[in-house]
Amino acid sequence: MATGNINKIESVQRRFTKRLSGLSKLCYESRLTVVKTESLERKRLRADLIICYKILNGIVHVNRDSFFVMTETSRTRGHSMKLYKPNGMSSFYATYFLDSYF
Q: Domain boundaries in the chain?
């Protein structure tokens, strides 16, 4: 989702919680605590982590290799699954500066 849309949706939640009785003077984080909810950004992060867990543990049946790269290192501090985030640069951008000098 585009950052602009995320900010618009989050601002709706900010305005809504500010209009609740007795909460208008509190900061956003305090209002969320009073109404026992989380920010939308935190909810999205939590959902991402849950789906990541489900993919890694085979609860959701998708090809794990299409989402994650597993490292071959044994230094995982007691955990057998360590994820590796490959560099997202495309080959075009990887060679862009080299091509511009020659």
A: 3-101
